[in-house]
């Protein structure tokens, strides 16, 4: 299998705009609107967020973002792999890349919010394989019956 290329993305290309639109549409299709915390392009274009895209044979196949929420704490945002490429290791490569970057930046902890329904089980399992554990809300999140919160201490 060809290598997955992960590159920092400026969020200006039409491919990434289309991928994020599909991601948001999917989130709103499977999660009540008040419980969707996925970010659109404008919300991702802030200094505290770094965004990466994943490419395979010249095709955009996934993305992930790291938000610095202060105090050595980072949040995983916008993790997505295109449906046709799920199970090919793209999500695993993106999460590993983000963890490495968080460590380089001196972060001590990473957290994330994902859904609780069956749709989100593969994501939960992926994060568990990296040592993330279920926690409660963090940062600006409050309790949400549709949210599943996970955290990992970085060594």
TrEMBL record:
Gene3D superfamilies: 3.40.630.30. InterPro entries: Acyl_CoA_acyltransferase, Bact_Acetyltransf, GNAT_dom. It comes from the Bacteria. CDD domains: NAT_SF. Keywords: Acyltransferase, Transferase. Residues 4-155 form the N-acetyltransferase domain. One of its GO terms (molecular function) is acyltransferase activity, transferring groups other than amino-acyl groups. This is GNAT family N-acetyltransferase.
């Amino acid at each position: 299998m060809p290598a997955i290329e992960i590159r920092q993305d400026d969020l200006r290309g039409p491919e990434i705009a289309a991928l994020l639109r599909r991601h948001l549409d999917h989130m709103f299709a499977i999660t009540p609107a008040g419980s969707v915390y996925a970010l659109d392009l404008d919300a991702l274009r802030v200094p505290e967020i770094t965004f990466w895209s994943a490419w395979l044979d010249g095709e955009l196949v996934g993305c992930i973002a790291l938000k610095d929420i202060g105090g050595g704490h980072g949040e995983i945002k916008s993790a997505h792999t295109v449906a046709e490429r799920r199970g090919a290791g793209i999500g695993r490569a993106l999460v590993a890349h983000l963890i490495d970057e968080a460590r380089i930046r001196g972060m001590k902890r990473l957290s994330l919010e994902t859904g609780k329904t069956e749709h989100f089980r593969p994501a939960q399992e992926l994060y568990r394989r990296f040592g993330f554990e279920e926690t409660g809300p963090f940062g600006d999140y409050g309790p949400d019956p549709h949210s599943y919160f996970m955290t990992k201490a970085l060594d």
